[in-house]
Write the structure tokens for this entry.
Amino acid sequence: MRKKVLVTGGAGYIGSHVVRQLGTAGYDIIVYDNCSTGSPKSVLYGDLIIGDLADLDHLYLVFAQHQFSAVLHFAASLIVPESIIHPLNYYANNTRNTLNLLRCCHVMGVNQIIFSSTAAVYGEVGENPVAEFVPTMPINPYGRSKLMSEWLIKDYAISSSLRYVILRYFNVAGADSSGKLGQISPKTNHLIMSACNAALKRQPQMQIFGTDFPTPDGTGIRDYIHVEDLAAAHLDALSYLEMGGESQILNCGYGQGYSVRQVIERVKAISQVDFPVIETNRRDGDPACVTACADKIHKVLGWEPKYNDLDLIVSTTLAWERGREMS
Ligand code: UD1
């Protein structure tokens, strides 16, 4: 029998890539999404139910109508500066809604969950690459709302048969090569998107937030992971839980960092557009350098990335953004 999984936030950027891979692998999929930042067009497999995780009655009904073997929980708010301005929304949408989901899992006996967490739970990292056992000290409400969700999952797992894989994403970027999926939320403006927008002349210039970090070229260093590799990690995590694997917290990154200047240089080279770059002050709450120690995910899941290539991340983002221009 085909296994049926619930994917919250499956119409969003990362969720939609995972749904496509789950569909290709033969899973039955129910996507639950309020489409506030995602789009029905991004759901290429399964059935989409438009709903909000805050609506516990509706969520119970969905659980009662389907027999899920596992839940993949992507739905969340994820913009750090917004989380500082509207912290309560972040605790409601991220932490409270994870609690709602766990309540449904409890009542309906669903005992496998894969949770989208973030490198933001680590905060200001002392030493890089950062491993999963390093103490978590998030420095913004976004990171704290995700860490609190991790605690809910861990505490509930202790008192129940729930097994989980918590995946801590580093800097996710890129788009699938078919051109059908990519980032669509206009609110998200990560470094690579911002540079691509400047290359496509959608914005007159781009800014470097801080050139006085203690890094070789003075700009921030991050571990950029291609969204297709990240999606594949979720399928590996699901197989792992299905085979009876015990609960895990795993970093998702390549273990290699690039500075803001290096990223901009690659976007300019690949787009062949020499857009203006303004150097400005540091952004509040930006750590100097965050890269993943990815040993554990390789060992536990046997995860093998296929797209560990900054140029590919940049070129798929550019192709996706160009395609959006034409559609
Ligand atoms: C952060 C979180 C990440 C989260 C993401 C969601 C941490 C360690 N990471 O990523 O988990 O998923 O927010 O929003 O907290 N930059 C510029 N100019 C720009 C844009 C960015 O110079 O126009 C710089 C930033 O200062 C930073 C780097 O580029 O040094 C990456 O920034 P960004 O792409 O926004 O992601 P993070 O803030 O690292």
